Amino acid sequence: MSNPIVEAVQKHPAPEGLQYTYGTAGFRTKADVLDSVLTRVGLVAALRSRSLKGKWIGVMITASHNPPEDNGVKLVEPLGNMLQEEWEVLSTEMANKANGDEVFKFYQDIASKYKIDLEAPARVVVARDTRASGARLLGCVQDGLKAAGAEVKDYGFLTTPQLHYMVRCLNTEGTKDAYGTPTEKGYYEKFGAAFKTALKGRKPSGSLTVDCANGVGGPKLVELIKHLPPKEEALEIHVVNDNVIKPESLNVDCGADFVKTNQRAPPSSKTGPGDRCCSLDGDADRVVFYFKDSSNVFRLLDGDRIATLVASFLGDQVRLAGLADTIRIGVVQTAYANGAATQYVEQHLKLKVDCTPTGVKHLHHAAEKLDIGVYFEANGHGTVIFSNDTLEQIAKYEPKNPGQAEALSVLRACIDLINQSVGDALSDMLLVEVVLAHKSWGPQEWLSTYTDLPNRLLKVLVKDRTIFKTTDAERKLTSPEGLQKQIDAEVSKVRQGRSFARASGTEDAVRVYAEAATKAEAEDLARKVSELVK
Ligand code: 16G
Ligand code: ZN
Question: Per the database record, which ranges form the Alpha-D-phosphohexomutase alpha/beta/alpha domain (predicted)?
């Protein structure tokens, strides 16, 4: 008798000699070696859904800021969170099974280990970014899902955060935690309406130019704009780099990763001094802002800046609403956060800072422990999450005066404006605009809140990056032995020095970060530490 799972797997055989790993961003590599992985991910998604009594599980086909020839896939948990770690391990193992029979055996092993009823319903939603390989890889996932007997909802093209939103909406529909209507229109209406309310009639100054990395964020932003208040009343947005007809232009000389890594605007940028700009990445889950100052110098407003801006604003609103005694705000960063940003939050905003290892899931987990957790990586990944208690307090609080009522209404609109399921470039972008409008700030005022310490990030190629083991949220090496002592010695030689080395989770390299009082000292420190690492 034929077995549909074995057949689906044999239809997409694994290339020989390759090892796949479900890493910080799911599976991600050259698109032409991913067919087998996608089929197996379909099987895992169906199992995961069954293990959660048929809750909707998300499958997003994207390689974010990677070059056009790459692709990838990640799984999304029912409330829009990243896949549980235990299932990352299962996914890795599944991806590396040799053939259909082995895959089928492992499929059954998982089912018996987790007491999964293979006849129970499985529900999976899929979406993809605009990469040329997306359609083929979608077919591979579909084959896996069909073989596993899952019910499938295909949303076509979506940004990664939109897919997370759909998953959360589908799983909360009709409950007291209902998150929204699980349609694209529902997404635009929810965020568009919240933006309008949060602005409270204020009009952001000037305009905002949005570089969409020639990715899926482009057409989705164009749709979103139709649901925002008219530009005469609110925000004027110029959409650039939104060419998805030419997938080979994705992330090329544009996008958030280009801007953050090169510390300069996309070469095609035509904006003048003082004009606000931002760049999304290829799947629109990251955003960084920037502008040219009056001397035509490029100025970056990265994830650290978004975190400080938003934390300060939410702190003000909580205080104005009369809730400062019961609601505590905290900021979650990684070791890559500029020392000046950390100091600003702790000493000026007087808020608690937590540091976690790199990767959204680590920051998200830490933020979940706070009443209001503002988390951003310097590279622009991030969002704000509110605990259930906090949401309830804000919903129920009776304002004592018009000032409190106004602040409460802003807070409530911000809660709706912030995508709680995951960091969302479009939602984060609107939030920043709301805060700037409330503060009547342009980018220069935003930049002036503190001065970044000069810093340098280097990539070091090593023989074996797995020997680099860290502790203290990646800020200290425990192996190779003795190396941390040598780094400490170099750090102590420069003023305001800080440096760390960690193995990359996405590339075969070690990353070295250094900062110091001057550019020369930071560069020097980064070079010295790189020499030690080599
Ligand atoms: C992944 C992570 C990102 C992190 C980056 C670090 C997610 C969704 N993405 O792209 O947050 O900043 O890896 O890369 O978690 P690295 O380990 O190569 O430095
Ligand atoms: Zn991304």
Answer: 57-86, 98-174
* Residues forming the active site: 64
Q: Of ligand 1's atoms, which has the minimum distance to the CA of residue 507?
A: 18
Three-state DSSP class for 215? coil
Phi-psi region of 112 (alpha: psi -120 to 50; beta: other; left: phi over 0): alpha
Ligand number nearest to the C-alpha of 360:
1
Q: Which of 288, 304, 506 has most ligand 1 atoms within 8 Å of its beta carbon, as the pocket-test mutant?
A: 506
- Cβ neighbours of residue 484 closer than 8 Å, sequence gap 6 or more: 476, 477, 478
- Nearest Cα residue to atom 2 of ligand 1: 359
Q: Delineate the domains of the chain, giving CATH numbers in brackets.
A: 4-157 (3.40.120.10), 186-300 (3.40.120.10), 303-423+440-447 (3.40.120.10), 455-533 (3.30.310.50)
Q: Is 524 in the pocket of ligand 1 (CB under 6 A)?
A: no
CB 511 near ligand 1, within 6 Å: yes
Task: Establish whether residue 23 lines the binding site of ligand 1, counting it when its CB lies within 6 angstroms of any ligand atom.
Answer: no
- Are the beta carbons of 400 and 322 closer than 8 angstroms? yes
Task: Write out the H or E segment, with its range, that includes residue 220.
Answer: helix 217-226
Residue 346 Cβ contacting ligand 1 at under 6 Å = no
Distance (Å, rounded) from C-alpha 477 to C-alpha 491? 14
Look up residue 132 and give its two tokens: 């040329």
Residues whose Cβ atom is located within 5 A of ion ligand 2: 64, 281, 283, 285-286
Q: What dihedral do alpha carbons 74, 130, 18, 97 form, nearest 10°?
A: 50
| pLDDT of the residue at 506 | 83
User: To test the ligand 1 pocket, which listed residue (302, 332, 358) has its Cβ within 8 A of the most ligand atoms?
Assistant: 358
Burial 277-303 (b: 16+ CB within 10 A, else e): bbbbbbbbbbbbbbbbeeeeeebbbbb
Atom of ligand 1 nearest to the CA of 503: 17
To test the ligand 1 pocket, which listed residue (21, 22, 24) has its Cβ within 8 A of the most ligand atoms? 24
Ligand nearest to the CA of 65: 2
The confidence score (pLDDT) of residue 1 equals 61
3-state SS class at 80: coil
Q: Chunked in runs of 10, what are the mean pLDDT values of the chain (534 residues)? A: 92 96 94 98 98 98 97 97 96 97 98 97 98 98 98 98 98 96 98 97 96 98 98 96 96 97 95 97 98 97 98 98 97 98 98 96 96 98 97 97 97 96 96 98 98 96 97 98 98 98 92 98 98 97
pTM over 0.95: yes
Helix 303-320 and helix 425-439, axial crossing angle in degrees, nearest 10: 60
Q: Does 480 sit behind a cis peptide bond, omega within 30 degrees of 0 on the bond before it?
A: yes
**Cα–Cα distance measured from residue 389 to residue 155, given in angstroms and rounded to the nearest whole number:** 33
Looking at the CA of 64, which ligand is closest? Answer: 2
Location of structure tokens 């609403």: 321
